[in-house]
Amino acid sequence: MNRGDAFDPSCPTRVVLDRIGDKWTVLVIGALQDGPLRFTALRARVGGVAAKVLTQTLRAMERDGLLTRTVHAQVPPRVDYELTPLGASLTAPIATLTDWAETHLSAILAARDDYDAELGAR
Amino acid sequence: MNRGDAFDPSCPTRVVLDRIGDKWTVLVIGALQDGPLRFTALRARVGGVAAKVLTQTLRAMERDGLLTRTVHAQVPPRVDYELTPLGASLTAPIATLTDWAETHLSAILAARDDYDAELGAR
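YS: structure for the whole thing
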């Protein structure tokens, strides 16, 4: 296979799209873009994520080749998470998306208010 | 509110990020980027989406101000879906993401195979 087609229902691009569009994946990519972090620091940076959910997100991202998990032999063991070149190549597309969301947040919230008010007025 | 912060757990940017990162939203934006479509044509273009799921996606996108739903008074009634300027402004960020997914699909699938083979070998 050379290149996927997101509009082909049988193409696994869709599964990938679901994964990289996931909110936590987006935030982890953003959190790691300046360098590796340990689990605790990563969790603090992402903010508001349950440890279990972050662990699952990191495992899925490791499986997809987006990050590496390195265990340093010390007491207590230190575990670093770091973007691979593949993961780092997602930084720009994801920054574009996050930037759009942050920029247009007010417009979206206003649209929701209008929509809900109109429904209520019927 | 001026601008959101995706790394602030209390900021609604996260909700927006979840919505625009959704696979169906991404595909609907792509499907409508060349102009309005009726439900049936839109469903055929997106491909592999259940009517109910597409209806829910379109309603959520209308509420967020990303598209308009126009009912033309004819028999049978014709309903067109069209991106708003806000929705159209999402086209570029989403194309970047879809393009990344299509380009790096092989690398991700290969990474998954390696990961799974390594787990199996333990």
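YS: worth flagging: Chain B has a mean pLDDT of 91.
IM: good catch. Also The first strand of chain B starts at residue 37 and ends at 38.
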